[in-house]
């Protein structure tokens, strides 16, 4: 039995994912957190820290910053410096801070469908969003660069990039990132690259490349957002960081952050350090487990000719096209059969659902059986 096969009851643990359907038989498969226990070294580090008993004011220590630098080098071959790191309690918070750095008459570009905060964050700062639809290119969600260029005007000053992409599952290639980088440099557009899913590339033939690592020019014009939260399933501890090599940009970001909290909390620091220094083996095993789960999902989709899904190379989220099953609301349709998926509409397309497959294989099979039962009624 794999570590990830262990069924853990998450009810009555302040768990957003399971509480949404509490007192029902519905299996949640929506919000992006996993039903797996964090790596044992993380749990041990937290236990030891709690055992100490004093939880006073705290700050991120040098060893934790070094753990980030080493992890990013080991996994993504990007050499960053400790002083580039700015700790923030969440990637969404950072995205909002980045938007606040821009005056009202600037436009923000993003690719759709997209994780809802890519639209909400600009709106919170009264910035207009230029949406560039992802296109089906070679059986994956890709970018039509001509369309991208055509939609840019001189007021576009920020590109919110999601790589790997949620909900599309695309890991943008070096070639795609170079093209994106070139366009942004040409038009003086700052890139804010949300790479929260960077460590969850489950196709072993694909590599994540931080866009800022492509060259020194892009390093200076990119704010990269990363976190151990999805990777090690510790989202509730709220740990994340922005990597901002450009000193001036870092100062503007920190100006927006001023007065809103100083770094991350004590247990977040403890878990982050343990995860980044002792979590590699767990992460390798997780990715293997997720890739087998993805196989199950892909086979399920293939066996239903009215469902469609493009290649998912990363994340544990399957973006499934339900247009051809011709039901009014695919989310409601599957909900009636006991599966709580994410509604495609939240990401920008009501014909889709998003299935979180980061759960035990046994439970995933149950989810897929229920979805099949629903489809069999059509
Ligand atoms: C692309 C993306 N960015 C950000 C987040 C949330 O990050 P945080 O919890 O650190 O705010 C998620 C969570 O699903 C996500 O998928």
Can you describe this structure in just a few lines?
The protein has 378 residues and is α/β, with parallel strands linked by helices.
Walk me through the structure:
By secondary structure, the chain is α/β, with parallel strands linked by helices. It has two domains: 3-39 and 280-376, Aspartate Aminotransferase, domain 1; 54-278, Type I PLP-dependent aspartate aminotransferase-like (Major domain) (Aspartate Aminotransferase, domain 2, 3-Layer(aba) Sandwich). The chain is 38% helix and 16% strand. It has 13 helices and 14 strands. The chain has helices spanning 16-19, 40-52, 62-76, 91-100, 117-124, 145-151, 174-186, 216-220, 247-257, 266-278, 280-302, 330-335, 361-376; strands spanning 27-28, 85-88, 107-112, 128-133, 135-137, 140-142, 156-162, 190-194, 222-226, 240-243, 317-321, 339-340, 342-343, 352-356. The strands form four sheets. Strands 2-10-9-8-7-3-4 form a seven-stranded mixed sheet, with helices on both faces. It has a three-stranded antiparallel sheet with strand order 11-14-13, covered by helices on one side. Strands 1-12 form a two-stranded parallel ribbon. β5 and β6 (140-142) form a beta hairpin. The longest helix has 23 residues, at 280-302. The radius of gyration is 21 Å and the shape is globular. Pyridoxal-5'-phosphate (PLP) is lined by residues 32, 90-92, 115, 162, 166, 194, 196, 227, 229, 235, 240.
């Amino acid at each position: 039995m794999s570590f990830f096969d262990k069924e853990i009851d998450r009810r009555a643990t302040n768990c957003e994912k399971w509480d949404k359907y509490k007192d029902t038989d519905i299996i949640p498969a929506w919000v992006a957190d996993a039903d797996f226990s964090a790596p044992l070294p993380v749990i041990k580090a937290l236990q030891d820290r709690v055992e100490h008993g004093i939880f006073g004011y705290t700050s991120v220590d040098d060893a934790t910053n070094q753990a980030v630098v080493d992890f990013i080098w080991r996994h993504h071959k990007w050499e960053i410096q400790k002083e580039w790191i700015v700790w923030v309690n969440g990637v969404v918070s950072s995205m909002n801070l980045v938007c606040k750095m821009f005056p009202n008459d600037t436009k923000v570009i993003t690719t759709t469908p997209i994780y809802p905060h890519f639209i909400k964050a600009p709106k919170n700062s009264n910035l207009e969003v230029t949406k560039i639809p992802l296109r089906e290119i070679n059986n994956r969600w890709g970018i039509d660069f001509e369309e991208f260029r055509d939609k840019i005007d001189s007021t576009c000053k920020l590109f919110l990039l999601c790589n790997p992409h949620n909900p599309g599952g695309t890991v943008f290639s070096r070639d795609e990132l170079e093209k994106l980088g070139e366009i942004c440099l040409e038009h003086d557009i700052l890139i804010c690259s949300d790479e929260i899913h960077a460590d969850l590339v489950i196709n072993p033939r694909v590599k994540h490349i931080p866009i800022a690592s492509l060259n020194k020019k892009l390093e200076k014009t990119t704010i990269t957002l990363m976190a151990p939260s999805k990777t090690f399933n510790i989202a509730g501890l709220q740990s994340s960081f922005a990597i901002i090599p450009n000193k001036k940009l870092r100062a503007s970001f920190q100006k927006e952050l001023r007065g809103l909290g100083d770094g991350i909390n004590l247990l977040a620091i403890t878990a982050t350090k343990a995860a980044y220094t002792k979590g590699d083996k767990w992460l390798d095993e997780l990715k293997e487990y997720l890739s087998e789960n993805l196989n199950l999902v892909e086979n399920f989709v293939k066996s239903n000719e009215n469902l469609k899904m493009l290649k998912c190379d990363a994340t544990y989220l399957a973006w499934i096209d339900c247009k051809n099953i011709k039901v009014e609301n695919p989310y409601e349709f599957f909900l009636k059969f006991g599966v709580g998926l994410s509604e495609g509409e939240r990401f920008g397309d009501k014909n889709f659902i998003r299935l979180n497959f980061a759960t035990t294989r046994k439970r995933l099979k149950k989810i897929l059986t229920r979805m099949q039962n629903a489809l069999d009624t059509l």
